[in-house]
Amino acid sequence: MDWDEPVFHVQGVVPNNEAIVGPVLLKYGTVSALIFFFGMILNVVFARLTRFKYIYLSGHVALYQSAMIAVILIVAGLSSWEAVLWGAIAEALITTVSPAVVQPFMRKVTGTDDVALGHTGGFGIALSGWIAKITKGDPAHSTEKLNVPKSLGFVRDSTVVVTLSMGLIYLIVAIIAGPTYVSTKISDGQNFILWALMSAGQFAAGVFIILAGVRVILGEIVPAFKGISERLVPNAKPALDVPITFTFAPNAVMIGFLSSLVAGLIGMGVMGVAGTTIIIPGIVAHFMTGGAAGVIGNAQGGRRGAILGAFANGVFITLVPLLLLPVLGDIGTANATFGDSDYGVIGLYLGYLGRAGGKWAIIAGIVVATVALFVTSAALTRRERSKQTVAA
Question: Taking the model in full, what pTM does it have?
């Protein structure tokens, strides 16, 4: 569910990756697919040659990211083959760096260094950890230690919490939109209250299925991956989608989602007052990245970290789509755009280089970023060896 003009009576842009990638693939499908293919190969190469040994396994979001990169490079004047060549390198850079940025916080969540986070919301989720650290919340005051009365013990089940929270949100939006609009445009004649409750149940069921899959991944696929990866990239870590974090702190997921969503709503109001294009909060983006930001923030700074960290993520993914619009060409005039934080990091870097100096500025920027990756890897390795020598 995304909110648009019929609900809040504003014309805005919804940061929904699935919605925007459709028209992009229709126009730049071949280039996007080739960037994705070669970008994934280069990700393995970078993992092999540097200390950042993260194999990005969230293929769907990597494809969306390659589609955005294709748009930006072609709008900047690169030919199709140039866009594939340099776009694949850019794709590999962001899919290598993003898990590395989040990993220090992931270790606090999982208690191990066996699995990483691979998602286009990586930088916003890492921001949550940084904010939680700066605000000095106490990890001992965890969201998972909330005192719940025995009469409300059922809310300890994360599926129940998701159902109740989403039911309230669906009801509010359905009431604002009005029964006539919901019945005629969305629910195929179903009562608008019943539709809201059923939609909340379907959303919660989807989350339950995702979490069940996560348990399978942790229990079986990750050990299998390690055996295979040792042949190609020794000590490689699988970088997996955001639900991998959800099982570690279910309460933090809901707190993070709501905090991120509040930030999005406040941002929408500020944009309305300022007269800019209005970025309408996308429920999926705020649930996925906000939930993970809540888990990361909670591990670093307890309840305070979960709330403030996820709020920072919400601000980030509200500003990113607004700033991206000018570099997406005619795709940027659509009613949807790319919404997660990593799209902003790589998209704004490439897009504004292109606006400043055309395709040669983009090529130079990608070369500089690649060199920086290897230099940083070498510097960190050297520093680690120095520490080991001193300790010995």
Answer: 0.81
